[in-house]
Design a protein that fits this description.
about 775 residues; Beta-Lactamase; 6-stranded parallel β-sheet; 23 helices
Amino acid sequence: MNPTPGSERSTREALQASEVRYRRLFEAAQDGILILDGQTGQITDANPFLLDMLGYTREQLLGKELWQIGFFKDRTLSAAAFEKLHQAGYIRYECLPLKAKDGRGHEVEFVSNAYEVDHQRVIQCNVREITERQQAARDLFESRERLQRVIHNIPQYVFWKDRDLNYLGANALFARSAGLREPEEIIGKSDFELSWKQSAESYRAVDRAVIETGVPRLNYEEAQKRPDGSVRWLRTSKVPLLDNAGKIMGILGIYEDITQHKDAEDAHRQSEANLANAQRIAHLGSWEWRIIENKLHRSAEACRIVGLPAETSGGTYEGFLNTVHPADRAAVEKALQESLAQKGPYTSEHRVVRPDGSEREVREQGEVFCDDTGRPIRMVGTTLDITERKALEAQFLQAQKMEAVGQLAGGVAHDYNNILTSTLLQLSLLLNDQSLPENAKISLRQLENEARRAAGLTRQLLLFSRQPVIEIKPLNLNAVLANLIKMLQRLLSKDIRLEFQSGDDPLWIEADPGMIEQVVINLCVNARDAMAPKGGRLTIDARLVKLDAEAPRVNPEACRGSFVCLSVADTGCGMDAETLKRSFEPFFTTKALGKGTGLGLATVYRITKKHRGWVEVASQLGKGTTFRIYFPALANAPLVRPESRPSLQVEMGTETILLVDDDIAVRDMTALGLKLLGYHVLEATSGQEAIQVWDDHAGEIHLLFTDMRMPGGLTGMDLFERFKRTKATLKGIISSGYSDEIVKAYGLVDPGITFLPKPFDVKALARTVRNCLDQPDPLRVSEPTS
């Protein structure tokens, strides 16, 4: 059947319309389109987009093959692609490099289809420009690569987990810390499978809290136990990990290892603690004054020195000046300002007043630091508590002064004792002269009493000059005090009430009984005078005390241990600070002229020091004074043998005595006294002369009576030892007014020798000579004339 003319026209019109639509699409397409001859591969058509992309006109493209306009690199590749298209009917290249006419490069997606048109094979090539997309893909890839490199090279440990707390990834540092070779190995693992499994539960507890609450946990410190037992300290932050929809899909964490930092902090804290301890022990504080801001910072020890709490270490220049004693403030401020003006060192010794009113003495040193323009901006310095040092310096100066005066007193006492010896011997002989009238003897007895008073003063001088002859033995202080009470009642006036507060238990010390009695009497006499004329209460107390390590800090002379404390307290007028400071100074007295020697308390001090003790005194004007004397206590009660009392019978004799003394008056009067007692006396004025006499009369001599010190270098001890070698039965008496010589020899001599301190009278002379000749006793010290 033949188509009708109308139907042919309709078909033709439809075909034309289709071609028009195709052409419009072909022309308007935003992808490049090439039409190739299916047999030759030559270009038969190209749309405008492709022409614009390649920079050709249509005429320039028609009849060319693909390799000629930049598709594929050469004819071989082009032929291979054409063959592949013939076989498959379809070919696609996701990314094909293409070079335009002007040399510009393009990346395109290339798709070819082969089909029949009017029984002819046609190839349509669709070319899509993907240069920007490819560049974006490359940029994204490179960005991801950079991000990975950043994550892997960051010096912190980075990780991320899913909601089940399994790892989704980590950086290389984190992976190595977990004991893995590559970061990818951590994916899917939990903390229980890694090297810190001992700390896993604590980590996961924080993870869960962050995921459940959505609240980050930032910059907190946690410990991580390692397999080798070591502990690392971490500073960690964890934040929720969100998906594209904003939902929490896991957790992102980052931490840094701060172990070294923590160790350094601990070391710094320990160093600060050590420095604080060193400053506390040395009583040396430090401070810094920032001059521009006027801010002052003190160390804890510097605060303690000035009496401020450690937490109030901050302050100002004005606040610093307020701690200085008002009397010293101007000098301190001047020293500071001169230091700032001259940019030189600052040094000051001054007093500070604590909030409680107590005072300390300090030495401050500082150094000024300036900026580049030379302007002072900072001063750094130290505060040294020198209160104890100043007290020791004062004690040392006082001790030096007392030592010098003591040496002078000892020398005076030596010469004075020789004079008193001659005087007492002469008075004794005169009083024994029966031809003298009684009224003359009355005057002589008054002179003898005055000489004995002078002898008592000499004994005080010797005590003060550290040269008394002392007899140390176990002593019950309670017994000594009990024996003294009756005598003290007579010594005190009736308007003074004496209270003796001591227990029944013995208080054992090692002491010289006479010296302890003198200490008590001197203190009681001082108390009596302090309470005159109104009277008052005098309290004597003795007890055992135990002192701890704090005692030397309060009083540098004190010691720790067990001591017997003798306390004498009065309700008298008391002393002001200046009097209290000088109370033990020799010859210092507040009494009227002729009422006191100023040796009473100095003697107390000397005796106490000789007994390895110390004295403490507290006094206030109008409130009385308390003296406390500390003696080392004996741990156990000693066995004390009863003493044999010396005979009061004065006996005479006929033995021969060699008398040696360089003082003519002493020698003459001693010789006269011995002769009147019946003894035969040979005299010598020096050691050399005594040797000559000994050589002439050695067989006749029974007793050597010699002064300790004589001209020519030989001492009395030298003579006795020399003569003793030739006559073993020789007895000896050594006498001296400078009693330190006796002390040095005490305990180092023959039992046949006796010491007789000067001054002495005829009775003491007779008793000592007779006892020495008659008794083969061990070393004895004759009692001085009382």
